[in-house]
Amino acid sequence: MRTMKWFVVLGAATACVGQTVVNGSRTVKGTLEVSGATSAVDFSQAASTAPAKSGTSLPATCTTGNVYFKTDATAGQNLYFCTAANTWSQMTGGNVTSVGLALPNTFTVTGSPVTGAGTLSASYANQNPNTVLAGPGSGGAGTPAFRALGQADLPSTIPTCTKYTATTGGGNWTVNGSNAGALAASTSQTITLASNVIPARGQITALRVKHSASFSGTGITALTVSLGDGTTSNIYAPAFDIYQATGNTVFYDDGGAFASTAAQHSLSATFTSTGGNLSAISAGSVDIWACTRQLP
Questions:
Q1: Nearest in space to 230 (alpha carbons), one of 280, 195, 205
Q2: Which residues of 93-113 are buried (b: 16+ CB within 10 A; e: fewer)?
Q3: Among 47, 203, 235, 295, which is 20 to 30 Å from 90 by CA?
Q4: pLDDT for 257-285, tens place per residue?
Q5: Those residues with Cβ within 8 angstroms of residue 210's Cβ, 6 or more apart along the chain or in another chain
């Protein structure tokens, strides 16, 4: 019977070594170690944990691997690690000391750089009137910039208006400064204002004629100009009286369209004189505006 009691006490001591549940508080004075390949410490179900020593003053001594939570440090940078004997290193999280914003000169940047807290902002810089933000006006792809619109930016269905100035003097016609032929020794002459300016399936949407200098010539009593395609007939406008400076004449012809898709057409002007040949004209010029578009 005495021998049996001895074994019961020994069994109880053995069971205590394998205990995994601790109820209540435990205070450990000394070193608490966990060792062994299968050992683990799991606090995942704890109501709270305080795994690091804390305070406002770093300990004077430390061993590599120690961790300290400094309560008065910048929030998010409270942890200090002992990276070598008696050497603490603060966890900084890779903060930067200055952040700037650089943008193309199309924009104006304010608030740059931010060295602590602040807001970076950008707004469009002032631009010249009648400019748009667009890619290059010609060539390949490029960086957008503010520039004036060009004809190539517009759809072909939007009318294109061009001014042609037909001038006489020195026995020749000139159109926008280029020689268009000698003044004819007859009462009628057709000159080309622009070659292939009317697109295939094109349409003349408006014509405007205005004197820039009155015509004069020995024996000539009248001078008119008719406008057309220079290949078939002057279907766009009847004769405008340009011998005297009588002001503007405007003509709209919504029927002046080409059904053909095969070729472009030129814009021509036929001058007709009364009382004398065209070669007798000594001076004069006329401005002709023509608006054309391509039909859908």
A1: 195
A2: eeeeeeeeeeeeeeeeeeebe
A3: 47
A4: 555 556 778 888 889 999 999 999 988 99
A5: 247, 248, 249, 286, 287
For residues 200 and 270, membership in a common domain is answered with yes
For residue 275, being part of any structural domain is answered with yes
Choose among 165, 256, 270, 267: nearest CA to 210: 165
| 254 plus 165 within the same structural domain | yes
Q: Per the domain annotation, does 27 fall within a domain?
A: no
DSSP state of 74: P
246 lies in which domain range? 160-294
| Residue 268 within any structural domain of the chain | yes
SS3 (DSSP) at 151: helix
Provide the domain count of the chain: 3
In eight-state DSSP terms, residue 230 is: S
